[in-house]
From TrEMBL:
Highest taxon listed in the record's lineage: Bacteria
Membrane spanning residue stretches: 29-46, 51-68, 74-92, 104-126, 173-192, 213-232, 271-297
This protein's UniProt keywords: Membrane, Transmembrane, Transmembrane helix
Name of one Pfam family that matches: DUF2232
The protein's name in its UniProt record: Putative membrane protein DUF2232
InterPro entries found in the cross-reference section: DUF2232
Organism the protein comes from: Microvirga subterranea
Keyword match Zinc: no
Amino acid sequence: MNFVVTGIGAGLVSALLTAVVLKATPLAAVLYLLAPIPVLIVSLGWNHRSGLVAAVVGGLAIAVFLSPLSGLGFALVTALPAWWLAYLSLLGRPNPDGTMEWYPLGRLLAWVAGTAALTIFATAIISTGGDFDAFHENAREISQAFVNLQFPPSESGFDAEDREAVIDLFARATPFLSAQGFTAALALYLWTAGKIVSISKRLPRPWPAVCELMMPRTVVIALAVAVVLASIGGFIGVFGFALAGAMFMAFALQGLAAVHDRTRGKSGRGFLLAGLYVLIFMTQGTLLVAAALLGLADTLFGLRYRFGSGKAGPKQPPTLSP
């Protein structure tokens, strides 16, 4: 019953971190962002069934004290994605020599992107009751607030028609941007929880060389499908944009991993990497486009397989299997 007890505790902690967002303070917002980590920790350190218990308990607690819709949102957006990624992280099969072959990090990153896209898509449907017009109106309100903040009407050179076109563009891109950010958040949550569990000596798998991750070539098909779906209207287009944004961030993370891998053992590595992240911050993420292109090329052509890496690096090209 140990996994039940830990699951109940993690679910209540995660629910509390979610509920404090009602305080509408900066600290409450920070605590809200930490809500998936307890579910990840118990799933990785005890048993994935603990994560399921945490999802159920947390969802029921929020449903009772806030609202049933909030409880469902907690389960779909916070708990279940965390549980699923933890479950995949601990998949493994024994090799003939007795060693364990753990789930590859590249495929795990692909699932992080897929999970983020599906979560954003489900949230869009649930929050609007399946009404696409309501979703689009909400997206336009968010887009209008963003455009007015970045380009104040009194200072920008946009006329009314151009401003409406920009607002519509950002409104359509809302699922792309949301999934992009959620993919990065899920990857960070998983890394943080894994590190905590690893330090406590409860992580079943050895700590992997994260910089060596490489997604399989089949994820390029998912990117192509996302582009096609994004050209379709309605919620199908919403899912296409969400999947495209998630895949963009996944390839950007792989591109950054490739830079980390290629610079291993090089003098001045810390200075170079620090400068890279400063540039990303200063360009407001624009440099991530170059990182995503590097990650895409790395998957398509196996750049690190062909040209080597800082140390041992990936020994096989990206697999064609899912």
